[in-house]
């Protein structure tokens, strides 16, 4: 039987590799072009944090007027006893209760239905060294200490604003199980932090975590449209310092851009803006939905942001129906395809570079052959220690695995 021409053999191998790559890319292109075919209603919730006696009254008055202009509600996270100094400093400080001027502004806005109040901690002062442990006012404190703070803050707001406070927004979105137990005990019905928090299915609390920032809201809406979720929710978290007029970066946001954004949102037929209290009247914002979204969000971190945003997988609090049907399969296909592409690329490049390199320096081949598994084990240990390794850490692990395969194949080729 005649031998196959080496050039023909190389061409076949090249075609096989190209074919495999195209097959791997197909799920990505399918997901990319996936458009919802059912009627879709996107719900947006605005959450403004850090309203207090120290917050800028002129800014908040203008903010309320803008929301009122477009008849758009907003949940205000109000600090009842704000720390008088730097909230990032955990040393003892005096606190300032909500003053009469701010109370009057808030009550007027509440009467018009434009804002709803939420308890934003007690003093918004960290109890830990922010540089070493991250800022938090509640996480790590005993149940008794947390309860004392929450009860006192809740009472002040209810007395001054003459309304029941049922929504809790922890400063820096940081809380623990003791916090949830306190909220459950004193009749809060909703907590709004972010997707990194803890939860417990036995609690009756509703979870509405922040999903995006105000200057990325349009991208989040586009992501919701790209998804096939019929009822996605977007919770927008913003602060005064994000506005240029308040000293923020010019590239972040301006008053005019904010007004234009609200105008655009209210002009969209498939977008509805809701307050938190209105939204949680539905029964699907429990701990189960929160846990499913948190797990989904963790998996999304394994692919590059531009990919998750383009495929409708970012900035959205997805419905249980969506997560239990197509979403889970879709994200796993995308993550696996992304990993296999990196693996193939790394293995092929290393194989073709390794043959001439290890023929000339055989000791180098043995060195890499034994060092690569050790490096891979080290990265695996690191990833299990901190599961939020992100797409760069995940890609690095897959790339090193591909390099090991390429080195092994090149050494086998040399020995033949």
Q: Uncertain runs with pLDDT below 50, 5 residues or more? A: 7-12, 31-37
CATH topology of one domain: TIM Barrel
Which range best describes the helical content: under 10%, 10-25%, 25-40%, 40-55%, 55-70% or over 70%?
A: 40-55%
Strand content: 5-15%
Question: What is the residue-averaged pLDDT?
Answer: 86
Q: CATH class of one domain, please? A: Alpha Beta
Order of secondary-structure elements: HEHEEEHEHHEHEEEHEHEHHHHHH
Number of strand elements: 11
Q: So, CATH architecture of one domain? A: Alpha-Beta Barrel
**Can you identify the CATH superfamily of one domain?**
Glycoside hydrolase/deacetylase
- Output the structural class: alpha/beta
Largest sheet: 6 strands, parallel
User: Measured on Cα atoms, how large is the radius of gyration?
Assistant: 27 Å
Question: What is the secondary structure topology, with strand pairs?
Answer:
Blueprint: H1 6-32, E1 42-51, H2 57-69, E2 74-78, E3 81-83, E4 95-97, H3 100-111, E5 115-119, H4 130-133, H5 143-161, E6 167-168, H6 177-185, E7 190-191, E8 206-207, E9 212-213, H7 217-226, E10 233-238, H8 255-266, E11 271-273, H9 276-279, H10 287-300, H11 305-310, H12 320-360, H13 362-385, H14 390-415
Parallel strand pairs: 1-2, 1-10, 1-11, 2-5, 6-7, 7-8, 9-10
Antiparallel strand pairs: 3-4
Task: Give a short synopsis of this structure.
The protein has 416 residues and is of the alpha/beta class. The chain has 14 helices and 11 strands. The protein has a domain at 42-285: TIM Barrel, CATH 3.20.20.370.
